[in-house]
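Quick note —
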Amino acid sequence: MLELAARQSQLEQAVSKLTSLVLTIVIFGLLVALAFWLAERSSERIQRFVKYLVFLAPALIFLFIGLIGPALRTLYLSFRDARGDSFVGLENYQWAFTQPEILDVLKNTGIWMVVAPIASTGFGLTIAVLTDRMKRPGLVKSLIFMPMAISFVGAGIIWKFVYQFQPNDRVAEIGLLSQIAEWLGFVPTNWILTSPLNTFLLIIVFVWIQTGFAMVVLSAAIKAIPGVSLAEGVTGPYDVIMRAEAPSMEEFGRAILSKVQAVPGITRTLTCPVTN
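Predicted structure written out below.
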């Protein structure tokens, strides 16, 4: 009898949650429809504003709830005591910057902030330029982009077999990195627990996932620039040779070169004009 009552209670809770979800979706859809209905009966400027608001508002709300709000609250609580009752000024920061563990965390965070974006963007730009020169760039880009479609859990399982370490000498090494170390005459170690090597090993996993995304974005950014007809990778002081056409040098600098220089990953350019 008690088991039947518990199941009935769980069913009622599930139905209540499902009903709330459906009502939320319906109300949101009605609000969006109402906004578009009112926009169609107003000026073009108001229509454009309403469309931007409808499409951006959900993302901005979730961004504030999940990121900006918690960040502001964390900043506020950093000046309070452990209970959050009284103001303590910079005491928490003084304590944090005198703890070796916290300094290690800050050091690793700094390494991540510098190495990971530069590596993923650099590899993405290089691969974007090289794959565009192949016969089937779409197939190659799909294979390189595939890690982006894998969850971090799946990526963790894959790279676990790369960094796997067997502390028992009687058990054969199954980790790829440990096996390579044995072939080269080195003694395998617990790679994930070896600092600071473990930081760079985890960055490799991040770069492996994000390089495909950076490749797609940078390739589309270069191709989307009006006037660009060719982009090739080369070896030398410059990594990309780009061919572009414009009716005049002034138009070339204003409409094409400025946009090329704004592409992330491009730090300097050299222009060699050819006139007809």
